[in-house]
Design a protein that fits this description.
The structure is a single chain. The chain contains 15 helices and 13 strands. It is an alpha/beta fold and 379 residues long. It has a domain of 242 residues: Rossmann fold. A 7-stranded parallel β-sheet has the order 3-2-1-4-5-6-11, with helices on both faces. Strands 7-10 form a two-stranded parallel ribbon. It has a two-stranded parallel ribbon with strand order 8-13. Helix 1 packs across helix 8, helix 2 crosses helix 4 and helix 9 crosses helix 13. The radius of gyration is 21 Å and the shape is globular. The N and C termini lie far apart (51 Å). The relative contact order is 0.13. The structure holds nicotinamide-adenine-dinucleotide and 2'deoxy-thymidine-5'-diphospho-alpha-D-glucose (DAU). Nicotinamide-adenine-dinucleotide (NAD) binds next to helix 1, helix 4 and strand 5. The site of nicotinamide-adenine-dinucleotide has 30 residues, from helix 1, helix 4 and strand 5.
């Protein structure tokens, strides 16, 4: 099979491509615009493969998409390209509407045109797999409830509303034009190559730099965490074995409050990279201690850096996935527990300071300044 992966230079897309090249005989065409979130260095382990090709293309560019389909003749599309960060969608929704809605529409039309021209057997075997999020379901008020594939959509943020819109478009193209599609809705991913605007890498990197660890509001919001390589395996199973027209929810059975996640990260860092003296200038500022004092009074734990800041507007309180359908029908279960996955993740960031330095470009620093300055260090 040759699979066209959109957004393959991103966090999850790069894990999917590494999985396909390392663990299958299939070929990949990585189609990515390379926004701030796209990084080809995440693919260095596989990009020399003869089964890997890259196309720098915007999914909103219809002509370029048609060229890519004609040149590469894929057997399936895995559509991950998106604007993915909720806080950025609140700050500036326009690119979310453009990429997630108009881009998905443009990709669907280019796919349809190509798919309709395929010969009968290839046309029947073709798959369009749309990768979506549990955030389309809104938040769960009942503490016992779980999102199933039939939970009604109730998105809360510009990001989740744009993803919900794209899901509706994909289902409409299936029902109206017969495009053979599958949709997956997954919970929060974490793991290697995660862009450090998101909670887990942000906390690890801030801690290592001795910066405050910003927890929105009380930190009692619940997310259901899945190790990214488990997600990548699930996605490959769905595109190769899933039933056309079906939706599969994917989750890790790891519901945690944000504050619990931050505590777990601090405890792992305390073990793996205990705070040393002398410490950096930013740490001095936080603790308002003189250098001489700090040398004799090292901080006991990274937890002392936790700072409750202003909450995210419209913040969903709880997400939790019922992943029984994909487990039952496709025999997929996550390999990693939260404990094993979070340890691997912290170890990966400790061992990849070079990757971290390169993704923390000037533009990323500007975003940090904007997002956290306005939160004003108050819950
Ligand atoms: P990411 O932000 O890390 O990567 C997105 C990728 O898409 C980047 O490589 C970027 O360059 C590319 N891209 C953005 N706009 C583009 C455009 N117009 N044309 C072509 N490429 C473009 O995102 P991620 O966390 O890897 O998420 C991937 C997908 O999975 C998204 O659709 C997201 O909604 C979904 N998802 C993410 C999570 C999660 O926890 N991260 C969970 C469930 C679902
Ligand atoms: O549920 C799936 C979704 O998970 C994906 O669709 C999104 O693309 C992905 O970004 C993620 O969304 P979240 O908003 O849940 O992820 P984020 O890492 O931004 O935040 C996780 C939780 O931590 C959330 O409740 C907000 C909180 N948070 C986040 C940041 C960045 C903080 O408390 N402090 C922070 O500085």
């Amino acid at each position: 099979m040759k699979i066209l992966v959109t957004g393959g230079a991103g966090f999850i897309g790069s894990a999917v491509i590494r999985h396909i090249i390392d663990s299958t005989a299939d070929s990949v065409v990585n189609l990515d615009k390379l926004t701030y979130a796209g990084n080809l260095e995440s693919l260095l382990d596989v990009s020399d493969s003869e089964r890997y090709a890259f196309e720098q293309v915007d999914i909103c560019d219809s002509m370029a998409l048609q060229r890519v389909f004609q040149e590469h003749q894929p057997d399936a599309v895995m559509h991950l390209a998106a604007e993915s960060h909720v806080d950025r969608s609140i700050d500036g929704p326009a690119t979310f509407i453009e990429t997630n809605i108009v881009g998905t529409y443009t990709l669907l039309e280019a796919t349809r045109q190509y798919w309709q021209g395929l010969e009968t057997a290839r046309k029947a075997a073709f798959r369009f797999h749309h990768i979506s999020t549990d955030e389309v379901y809104g938040d769960l008020e009942d503490p016992e409830a779980l999102f199933t594939e039939t939970t009604p959509y109730a998105p809360s943020s510009p990001y989740s509303a744009s993803k919900a819109s794209s899901d509706h478009l994909v289902r409409a193209w299936s029902r109206t034009y017969g495009l053979p599609m599958l949709i997956t809705n997954c919970s929060n991913n974490y793991g290697p190559y995660h862009f450090p605007e998101k909670l887990i890498p942000l906390i690890i990197l801030n801690a290592l730099e001795g910066k405050p660890l910003p927890v929105y509001g009380k930190g009692n919001q619940v997310r259901d965490w899945l190790y990214v390589e488990d997600h990548a395996r699930a996605l490959y199973k769905v595109v190769t074995e899933g039933v056309v027209g079906e939706t599969y929810n994917i989750g890790g059975h790891n519901e945690k409050q944000n504050i619990e996640v931050v505590h777990a990260l601090c405890e792992l860092l305390d073990e793996l990279r205990p705070m040393q003296t002398p410490v950096g200038a930013s740490l001095l500022a936080i603790n308002d201690l003189a250098d001489a004092q700090i040398k004799h009074q090292p901080m006991r734990s990274y937890k002392e850096l936790i700072t409750h800041v202003q909450d995210r507007p419209g913040h969903d309180l709880r997400y939790a996935i019922d992943a029984s359908k994909i487990q039952r029908e496709l025999n997929w279960t996550p390999v990693e527990t939260f404990e094993s996955g979070i340890r691997k993740t912290v170890e990966w960031y400790l061992g990849h300071a070079d990757w971290v330095e390169r993704v923390k470009s000037g533009a990323y620093q500007l975003w940090l300044d904007k997002n956290y300055a306005r939160r004003n260090d108050k819950p």
